[in-house]
Amino acid sequence: IDGMVSGLAERLEDEPQDQPGWHRLIRAYLVLGRIAEAQEAAQKARSIFAQQPDKLAALNSQLPPQLGAQE
Predict the structure, then answer these.
(1) Neighbours of 64 (CB within 10 A)
(2) What is the reported pLDDT for 28?
(3) What is the C-alpha separation between 70 and 63, in angstroms, rounded?
(4) pTM for this structure?
(5) Alpha-helix runs per DSSP H in the chain
(6) Is the four-CA dihedral 23, 26, 28, 30 of positive or negative sign?
(7) CA 44 to CA 53: how far, in whole Å?
C-alpha cells in the first residue's frame, strides 16, 4: 500500500492539476495515520488550486475537518 501511495504522490508531481488525485492522496495518508503528510499534501493542493476557485472549493469540500478546510 505504501508503494501505491508513493506512486500517486510521484505522479502528482508530474500532473499537479489532478484534483481527484490530490483527494485520493490526502485520504490515503489519513488512512495510514500519516497526518502530517496529509496536512502537507492538503496545503500543497490548496496552493496549486488557489487561482481555480471551483477546484479549490471541490477539494476543500472533500477534506475532513481535522485538515481545516479553507475557502
Answers:
(1) 12
(2) 96
(3) 10
(4) 0.88
(5) 2-14, 19-31, 35-48, 53-62
(6) negative
(7) 15
Per-residue pLDDT at 69: 59
Q: Are the beta carbons of 64 and 30 closer than 8 angstroms?
A: yes
Positive or negative, the Cα torsion across 59, 63, 66, 69? positive
pLDDT in tens, 15-63: 999 999 999 999 999 999 999 999 999 999 999 999 999 999 999 998 8
Grid cell of 14 as nine digits: 508530474
CA distance 15 to 61: 21
Contact criterion met (CB below 8 Å) for 63 and 42: yes
Return the higher-pLDDT residue of 69 and 11: 11
| Cell 499537479 -> residue | 16
- The amino acid that residue 26 corresponds to is I
